[in-house]
Amino acid sequence: MTTLAMGIDIGSLTAKGVLLANGAPTAKFLCRSLPSATESVRSVASGLCGHGRIEFEQVHAVCLTGYGRFQAPFPAIEKSEISCHGLGAAQCESSVRTVIDIGGQDSKVIALDDRGLVQEFAMNNKCAAGTGRALEVLAHALGVPVEELGPLALRGKAGCRLSNRCSLFMENDVLQARRDGIEKSAIARGIIDAVVERVLTLTAKLPIRSGICLTGGVAKNPGVVAALERHLDQPMIRFEFDPQLVGALGAAHFAARSL
Amino acid sequence: MTILEEIRAEAGRPLPELAEKYHADGRRCAALFCGFIPPEIVHAAGAVPMRLRATGHSGTDAGSTYFAQTHCSLVRHAFDMAMRGRFAGFDAVMFSTGCDHSRRVYDAWRHADAAPALRMLIPVSSDSTPAAVVALERELEKMIFTLREEWKVELDDGAIGGAIRQYNKQRALLEQIGRARIADDSRLSGADVLALHQVISSVPVDQGNALLERLLAELPGMPARENATGTRLFLVSSHFEDLRRMATIEEFGGLVVGDLMCTGTGYFHGPVDEAAPPLTALAERALHRLSCPHAADEIDRRVRFIVDSVREGRCDAVILDRLSFCAIGAAEFFVLARRLKAEGIAVLELEGELHGGGEGQLRTRLEAFREQLSNRDSAR
C-alpha cells in the first residue's frame, strides 16, 4: 500500500504544498495566498490531489505550517515553519547545518543538528528590511520586475551603498541613486547587499556553521545567493528541489513521521 | 465568579476609572511611572499609589507628537493618555530617571502642561553604591516636602514606618503566592499572577493585602492549572502589562511559573528594613531591588536570582521579553542571554509592543522554541 503524507505551508505571500508517496515527493503545488488561510489550505490540498486525480481521503496524514497553520479545515498536525524548513532542507541535503530562510515577511537563521532538527534559531522582528517584501518594494522603486533583480545585480559593480536599517529609507536611497544616474545594475546589487546584510544581523545571535543553504522564494534570486556567498565567504548548498517548497517538504516529512 | 475571575476583571479596568472611584470615596491618588518610587511614601501621605499602566488605552497618535516611533510604546501610550486628559482625575504623577525615555516623558508632560498639575521627578543613580543611596534619600526628602506643601498633610517617619510594615506584609504574602506558583500542581498561571500584580499595585495596600489573604486561603481548593504544552518557563521582562501576550506565551510556549520584571515579582521582591531609618531603608531597597536593569552593577545578583529560580521552579527555559526600543532592556538582555546560556539554560529572546501586534510571529517563535526544547531533550 502506498503511504501518502501531505505538507502544506501557508505563507504571507504564497501557499505551497508537497505530497509524499512512500517518503518521496510525488506532487508539488504553489499559488498566491488567498485572503482566507482556510481557503489557501483547501486550494493547496486540492492542487496536490491533482484536482480530483486522487481523493483527499486517501491521504494518510497532513501537517500544516506557516502563518495559516492554525486554520486547518480538516484534521492535521501543526509544526512551526522554522522546524519545517529545517527538516525539509535536511531531506534535500543531509550535510545542511544552517538554514537561512528569507520569506515574504520575515527572515530566519536556523541551526540544525545531524537529524535535521532545530537546535537554535534567530528571527527578524517587525522590521521588513531583510525580507522578500523589501526586495519587491525596492525592485519596484528601481523600475524592474523582482524576478529580474537578481540577474541584473550579478552584472552590477560594487559600490552603491544603501541604508539597510529600514525599507522606507532604502526606497528613498534607491530613488536618490537613480536621480544620481547610477547604473541600474549597480543599484540592484546595492539593494541585494543591503537586504542580505540586514538578514545577516541575525547571525550576531546565532553563529553560522558550514553547510549553509538558503530556502524560501528568495532562494530563486541568484543575486541574493551570490551576495550571501560573498558576505559569508562560504559556498551555499544548492538544491535540485524547489527551494520555495522546502518548508512544505519538511511539513510533509513531519506528517509521514506522525504515522 | 471565582476569585481569579474577579482579579482578571479588576485588572482589566483602566486606571482613570479607578482614580474616579477613589476620588468619589474622598481619597487622593497618584500615578507612579516607575518602580523606583516608593509607594510607602504616597500611601503615608494618604493617597493611593497606582503603578501606571495603559490598560484599556489604544492608539498613540497624540503621544507621538512629542515622541518618535523609536521611543518605547510605554512612553508613547502614557503620554498619549496624558494628552487626552486621561490623568485629570489623578492628584499627582511621579517619574524617576530609571531610563532616559521616562525622564523625557516627564519633560514633555511639563512642557505640554498636561494634567495633573503636580508632576514630580525623582532622580536615581544608575548604580547602587552607598553614595547613590544617600542621594536617593535626599530626593525622597524633597518628595516628602513637596507632598506636605501641596497636599497639606502630616507626613512623618511614624506614618512612613506604618506604611512600610503594611507593604512588607504584602511582599511576604506575595512570596507565599510565588511558592504556590512553582508547585507541580500549581493553581496559578502566569497570566493569573500578572493580573494579581496589576490589581494590588493599583488599590490601597490594605485592600491588596486582604485580597492576597483571601486568595491564599482559597488556593488549596482550586483546580490545578492545565499546562497545555508541559513546558515550564521563567519570564524576564521590564514593563510587561499585556495579559493577552502572557496568555499567548502560556498557550504556545509553556506555563510561566516565575518571573523577574518590574511590573511583576521583581517590583515586590524583598522587604524594606524596618529597623533602619525609613528613608534610608526605602532608598536602600529601591536601589537594590532586583528587577531593574537601570542598576547595572546589580547584574550578577539578577543573574543569580534567575538561575536559582529556574532550578527551584524546575523551568525548562527562560524567555527574555522586552519592549521594542527599550535601550537598557536591550543592553541587559544581551548580557543575560549569554550568561544564562553559559549556565546551560535555554533562552528565547522576544520583543514587542506594550499591547498587541505581531501575534503571528510571536506564536511562531514560541512554537519553534518549544520544538527546539523537545529536540534537545530527545537528543539526550
Gross morphology of chain A is: globular
User: Can you identify the CATH class of one domain in chain B?
Assistant: Alpha Beta
Order of helices and strands of chain A: EEEHEEHEEEHHHHEHEH
| Helix-strand string of chain B | HHEHEHEHEHHHHEHEHHHEHEH
Question: For this entry, what is the oligomeric state of its chains?
Answer: heterodimer
What order do the helices and strands come in, and which of them pair?
The complex is a heterodimer of chains A (259) and B (380).
Chain A: E1 4-10, E2 14-21, E3 24-32, H1 37-48, E4 61-66, E5 77-78, H2 81-92, E6 98-102, E7 107-112, E8 118-123, H3 132-142, H4 146-154, H5 167-179, H6 184-200, E9 212-215, H7 222-232, E10 236-237, H8 246-257
Parallel strand pairs in A: 1-4, 4-5, 6-9, 9-10
Antiparallel strand pairs in A: 1-2, 2-3, 6-7, 7-8
Helix pairs in contact in A: 2-8, 3-5, 3-6, 4-6, 4-7, 5-6, 6-7
Chain B: H1 3-11, H2 15-24, E1 28-32, H3 39-44, E2 47-51, H4 73-83, E3 92-96, H5 100-112, E4 119-122, H6 130-151, H7 157-181, H8 190-200, H9 205-218, E5 232-237, H10 243-252, E6 255-260, H11 265-268, H12 278-288, H13 299-312, E7 317-323, H14 327-342, E8 346-352, H15 359-379
Parallel strand pairs in B: 1-2, 1-3, 3-4, 5-6, 5-7, 7-8
Helix pairs in contact in B: 1-8, 4-5, 6-12, 7-9, 8-10, 10-15, 13-14
Describe this structure in words.
The complex is a heterodimer of chains A (259) and B (380). Chain A folds into two domains: 4-82 and 246-257, Nucleotidyltransferase, domain 5 (2-Layer Sandwich); 97-238, Nucleotidyltransferase, domain 5 (2-Layer Sandwich), CATH 3.30.420. Chain A contains eight helices and ten strands. Chain A has helices at 37-48, 81-92, 132-142, 146-154, 167-179, 184-200, 222-232, 246-257, and strands spanning 4-10, 14-21, 24-32, 61-66, 77-78, 98-102, 107-112, 118-123, 212-215, 236-237. In chain A, the strands form two sheets. Chain A has a five-stranded mixed sheet with strand order 3-2-1-4-5. In chain A, strands 8-7-6-9-10 form a five-stranded mixed sheet. In chain A, α7 links the parallel β9 (212-215) and β10 (236-237). In chain A, α2 crosses α8 (246-257), α3 (132-142) runs parallel beside α5 (167-179) and α3 runs antiparallel to α6 (184-200). Chain A is globular. The model of chain A has no long low-confidence stretch (mean pLDDT 90). In chain B, α4 packs parallel to α5 and α7 (157-181) packs parallel to α9 (205-218). Chain B is 52% helix and 12% strand. The chains are: A alpha/beta (259), B alpha/beta (380).
